Structure formats: C-alpha cells, structure tokens
Amino acid sequence: MTLNGWHKKYQEILNEFNYDRSREIRSARILNSLLKTRLGLNRLERKIKNKTVFVIGAGPSLRSSLPYIKKFKNFTKIVADGATQALIENNIIPDIVVTDLDGNMEFLRKASESKSIMIVHAHGDNINRLPYAISFKYCLGTTEDNPFRKIRNFGGFTDGDRCVFLANHFGASKIILIGMDFGTHIGKYSKVGIHNKYLKLKKLKKGKLLLEWLASKGNSDLYTTSKPITGFKNMKLADLQRLVR
User: Which residue has the higher pLDDT, 63 or 219?
Assistant: First the structure.
C-alpha cells in the first residue's frame, strides 16, 4: 500500500521539476515488462521488519564512515546506488540496493551477483537504462506513480530518501542514516558524470524535505550520523555500538 499522502508529494515533485507524468508511467510499464518474475515482498520484510537498519548514502562523509560500517556485519544495510561501489570496494555486501541505474553498473552487477536485492526505480529520464535490470537476479521495480503488477511504490524521490521510505514501509525498528549528508557538496560516489550540479543539489534538498515529512508520519526510530534532519536524532558514528547492541 502506498504511503498515505504520497500522491500529493508526488504532484509537488512533478510541478517543481517540470516532469512529464506520461513518461514516468511509460517508464514504469517498460520496467514491468522487462522484469522476469515478481519478487516476493516477504524477502524484503525478513531483512527489515523490527530490525535496526543502516541506510547508506553516497555523500562526502561516506568514505570516513566505512570503517564503522565494516564492524556491523550482521545488520541490514540498505544502500543508495552510487554508495554500492564504495561498499563493494571495501568488501561490504549490501543487503538491498536502491537504484535508478545511474551509478557504476560494474558494481551494481557485483552487488547483484552477491545476492543483494536490487530495487530498481523507473522514472521518465532513465528509460534507456532500464534493460540493465534484466541481469539482476533478485529485482523489484518501483515508481513514484501508481503501483501495478511487478511495480511497487514505497514513496521517495532520490535513491537516498527512497532507501529510508523502504525501511519505514517494512517496519524497521531503527533507521540509521550514514553518508546521507544533504549538504552543498556532492560525494565522490554520488553519481557517474554529474553535468548539472545545481539540479543535483535541488534534488537532494527535496529528498531531505521528504524525509522530514516522513519523520512526522513513520513509526521507526530515526537517526542520522551526518547533518541535522528535522525528526531525526543526531548521533556520532562512534556511538553506533552503544545504540544497536
């Protein structure tokens, strides 16, 4: 079930970014036709429900966070697109990768080969990249529009905030943001070949606003190890052990 109030937020996104809804719908239909099977949601629920979940973004603070992440091998890690490369390079396997396929495909494929669940998002600007999803073993499609057949809508706009919406949807007890900076600097792993920094920062700002909206509605305990987000408790990476033990 789509989060109550999401459709209003989606309309705001369409208006703010001048997106063509018909292309959004077309992209979702194409992704649905490409996916071979419908991934059972129970697989995701087992990874998330009533658990402490790390949501890992590709912000500038990610690199210094990696030594801390490595200490928590048995905790569910939901990873935003580009951050996948950083984790794989450091021998950390994501449990779930949320991607619109604009990250490094080599590392997205490596994550899939390591049995990461791939959450592939369809939007109006990534139609030409959707065929990459065919190679992912465990793959679920998402949209910001109306869900249908193999395509779900858990809420969220950017890869990073969609990770949080996903964790909230499946009932994580604690959601801890790592490398989710929402600042004015773009991380090394954030996106392959950014051509419009202004647009990227505008999207990050919108993602942060959506998380603040989610914080007012969700039931999970929310934490961030980076810049303040309204509704999220600030914490230091050094205190992770105390929080999750």
Answer: 63
> How far apart are the C-alpha atoms of 8 and 213, rounded to whole Å?
12
Which pLDDT tens digit goes with each residue over 46-65? Answer: 999 999 999 999 999 999 99
Count of domains forming the chain: 1
Q: Which of 186, 176, 229 is nearest to 68 (CA)?
A: 176
Spatial distance between the Cα atoms of 183 and 59, rounded to a whole number of angstroms:
8
Both structure tokens of 235: 């914490």
Q: Are 99 and 118 spatial neighbours (Cβ–Cβ below 8 Å)?
A: yes
Any residues with CB less than 8 A from the CB of 4 and at least 6 apart, and which?
217
Does residue 1 fall inside a structural domain?
Answer: no
Q: Which residue range forms the structural domain that includes residue 151?
A: 6-244
Q: Residue 88's domain is classified under what CATH number? A: 3.90.1480
Backbone Cα Rg of the chain: 16
Which residues have CB under 8 Å from 239's CB, separation 6+? none
The Cβ of residue 95 has, within 10 Å, a number of other Cβ atoms equal to: 18
150-159: pLDDT as tens digits: 999 999 999 9
- Burial profile 185-196: b = 16 or more Cβ within 10 angstroms, e = fewer: ebbebbbeeeee
SS3 category, 81: coil
